[in-house]
């Protein structure tokens, strides 16, 4: 392990050392991995066994320890505690690979502990509907802090962590590029919830933040030029796939040439996602408990872990 200097709260673990932790790997077939992956290349099996399996083992250890602590404190207080879900927050830029990593982590936790109910929630469900963003003149700032119903998101995590039996999250569609009216995701009887989104580690002007309710916070990091490339590639893949659907908000981009599509996506990146990364997302990195640093090939090269 590498010390990052006396003032750093993190220790750095090189991939080679990290990959030796927490073996053996639970069985995860290539086909299943392809299903869990996003639009691009499937996540490599080596990436799962070297990076995500040790991560899932570490999370398993921390979840067990948190449960023991909660039970011990409950018996000290003479108040057997009502089990509440363990909340894992996963933040990072648009297109850095959060949804992909979150799906892999959820699946590995399910394989490691089949008795646990593990659910995935994405914060895009808490975006304001397009009509409200248009009214406020901030449609081009989708993903910025003010584009979310922050109070509803805070309420959601507060309810979850205070043991409310059934909590509802609104649902966002990347196809219609809008909130799906009347649809909700039910989170109930969960042992573990992974909450993924650009904003999970952000703080506003309030006194309480989403991260106050997170038991463990992950930040997925990469060079901005790499993330931009992944964003453009995903946009090109969407143009060949989802955008062809007439229901898609971006259907008007379905017939763009490669060059035109890159120009449109670069514009969205430069006007919206890059400034959001610089102003609102990257500054949350030091709040994480664990940072995964990815190289240009999506491989995690280094892990920074907050000292326990
Ligand atoms: N580990 C990985 N290996 C290969 N490709 C990946 C990996 N993680 C993400 N990607 C690709 O990068 C793009 C962005 O990933 P995604 O999970 O959609 O990002 P986010 O949820 O952060 O916006 C997608 O096209 C996805 O297929
Ligand atoms: C809705 C999002 C902010 C969600 O980001 P996520 O947390 O899923 O990475 C993003 O997908 C988005 O739509 N950004 C707006 C600009 C764009 O179309 O890329």
TrEMBL record:
Keywords, comma-separated and alphabetical: ATP-binding, Coenzyme A biosynthesis, Cytoplasm, Kinase, Nucleotide-binding, Transferase
Positions of ATP binding: 92-99
Keyword Cell inner membrane part of the UniProt annotation: no
Enzyme class: transferase
Pathway(s) of this molecule: Cofactor biosynthesis; coenzyme A biosynthesis; CoA from (R)-pantothenate: step 1/5
A molecular function GO annotation: pantothenate kinase activity
EC number: 2.7.1.33
Primary location group: cytoplasm
Swiss-Prot/TrEMBL catalytic activity: (R)-pantothenate + ATP = (R)-4'-phosphopantothenate + ADP + H(+)
UniProt keyword Transferase present: yes
Subcellular location: Cytoplasm
Superkingdom: Bacteria
UniProt family annotation: Belongs to the prokaryotic pantothenate kinase family.
Protein name (database record): Pantothenate kinase
Organism: Solirubrobacter deserti
């Amino acid at each position: 392990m590498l010390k990052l200097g006396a003032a750093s709260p993190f220790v750095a673990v090189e991939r080679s050392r990290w990959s030796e932790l927490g073996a053996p790997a639970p069985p995860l077939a290539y086909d299943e991995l392809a299903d869990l992956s996003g639009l691009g290349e499937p996540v490599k099996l080596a990436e799962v066994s070297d990076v995500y399996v040790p991560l899932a083992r570490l999370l398993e250890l921390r979840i067990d320890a948190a449960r023991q602590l909660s039970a011990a404190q409950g018996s000290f207080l003479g108040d057997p505690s009502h089990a509440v879900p363990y909340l894992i927050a996963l933040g990072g830029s648009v297109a850095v690979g959060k949804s992909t990593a979150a799906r892999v982590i959820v699946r590995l936790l399910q394989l490691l502990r089949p008795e646990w109910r593990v659910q995935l929630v994405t914060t895009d469900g808490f975006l304001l509907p397009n009509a409200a963003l248009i009214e406020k003149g901030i449609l081009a700032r989708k993903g910025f802090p003010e584009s979310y119903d922050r109070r509803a998101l805070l309420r959601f995590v507060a309810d979850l962590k205070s043991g409310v039996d059934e909590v509802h999250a609104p649902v966002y569609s990347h196809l219609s590029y809008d909130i799906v009216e009347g649809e909700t995701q039910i989170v109930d009887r969960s042992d573990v919830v992974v909450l993924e989104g650009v904003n999970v580690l952000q703080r506003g002007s309030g006194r309480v933040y989403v991260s106050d309710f997170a038991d463990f916070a992950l930040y997925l990091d990469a060079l901005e030029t790499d993330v931009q490339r992944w964003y453009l590639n995903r946009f090109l893949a969407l143009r060949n796939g989802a955008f062809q659907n007439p229901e898609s908000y971006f259907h008007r981009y379905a017939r763009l040439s490669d060059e035109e599509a890159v120009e449109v996506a670069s514009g969205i990146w430069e006007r919206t996602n890059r400034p959001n990364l610089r102003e609102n997302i990257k500054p949350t990195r030091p709040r994480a408990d664990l940072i995964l640093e990815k190289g240009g090939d999506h491989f995690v090269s280094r892990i920074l872990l907050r000292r326990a």
